Amino acid sequence: MSLNSVASAERIHIGFFGLRNAGKSSVVNAVTGQSLALVSDVKGTTTDPVKKAMELLPLGPVVIIDTPGVDDEGELGMMRVKRAKQVLNYADIAVLVVDASKGMTDSDNELVSLFEIKKMPYVIAYNKADLIINIPDETEKEIYVSAVNGFNIERLKNKIAEAGKSEKNEKHIVADLIKSGDTVVLVTPIDESAPKGRLILPQQQTIRDILDTHATAVVTRETELAQTLDSLKNPPALVITDSQAFGVVSKIVPSYIPLTSFSILFARYKGNLNILANGAMHLDSLKDGDKVLISEGCTHHRQCNDIGTVKLPGWIKKHSGKELEFEFTSGGEFPEELSDYALVVHCGGCMLNEREMQYRLRQAADAGVPITNYGTAIAHMNGILKQSLKPFGDIL
């Protein structure tokens, strides 16, 4: 598998944090061996988080994130600090860069407290070790480095890799539900919202996971699904559909064949299927005037019949029979305050890493707001949620 074939959401995200002029960007450049971040003696050169997908040995495919200084000043500076701290919501590993000639400050200690509250593995890199005469003894989480002369940069990489070991896991999208020799049918509607000339990421990743299991992936549109099933010598081990075709597909697939959706598979893959499945039940208790947030993890050109902004609101209104208010977010946008919403409906989250999805779930839980996702919501509105959850055991 080539480096570029690893999706950003599947890479370990490493955030570099610290005060202005601690040398964060210089350390980032030294660690990556690239001029990833702009370096200057002027405080506050980094004004927004800078991301770079790359290979970092011995860890593997990663996303490096250089953040603004957390001691920035003024109204604009406070916005930069906020953006820096937002990185904590999706970084898997934190590297705190401290000016070794000055030592830890209150702001540095505050960051360490945040790392620990968020249960985030971290390393403290005391930069500018070339400016001090006697280097103190290091602890398990500390290391003295110099971005200027490369002192201990390789050891810092190894420390980051050690911290990242606990973040690696062997979770599967679908491989643990099937076996070698099985056939899996994937239903992928092609309409005005489908990307031209390619499949979307969840479909690509699911196909790869099936092939890695030495099973067979059969891809079809919902319009050819019945013919496809009839052409198979044996019933498929599983049928996976795009959520928006759930209603049509469920009428074609016999009840003895397990059926689920890409969105439900990715909810399980991110470790939150139980919460999202139970959240779908709240579609039945919406009231007139309730506000519903529909949030997508990616940004894309909205089509005239877009699932997030057009189809889902229509289906939810029809299911609830209520007059509802809808709000929409996409990409990195996700409200910090959710208490005004009666329900959050999220996409499958294929473009978000697991930590960010878990953060969004915690945000909803802390606000006491139920949260579901496209797949579980659509399955429930079509009366087939329990059927679509059968492959995963007792969920509801």
**Name of the CATH first level of the largest domain:** Alpha Beta
* Number of beta-strand segments: 14
Structural class per helix/strand content? alpha/beta
**Radius of gyration over C-alpha positions, nearest whole angstrom:** 24 Å
Key phrases:
396 residues; alpha/beta; Rossmann fold; four-stranded parallel beta sheet; 33% helix; globular
Could you explain the architecture of this structure?
By secondary structure, the chain is an alpha/beta fold. The chain folds into three domains: 3-165, P-loop containing nucleotide triphosphate hydrolases (Rossmann fold, 3-Layer(aba) Sandwich); 175-265, 3-Layer(aba) Sandwich (Rossmann fold), CATH 3.40.50.11420; 273-381, 3-Layer(aba) Sandwich (Rossmann fold), CATH 3.40.50.11410. Helices cover 33% and strands 18% of the residues. The strands form three sheets. Strands 2-3-1-4-5-6 form a six-stranded mixed β-sheet, sandwiched between helices. The protein has a four-stranded parallel β-sheet with strand order 8-7-9-10, with helices on both faces. The protein has a four-stranded parallel β-sheet with strand order 12-11-13-14, sandwiched between helices. It is globular, with a radius of gyration of 24 Å. It starts with 11 loop residues before the first strand and ends in a 7-residue tail after the last helix. Residues 37-46 have low confidence and may be disordered.
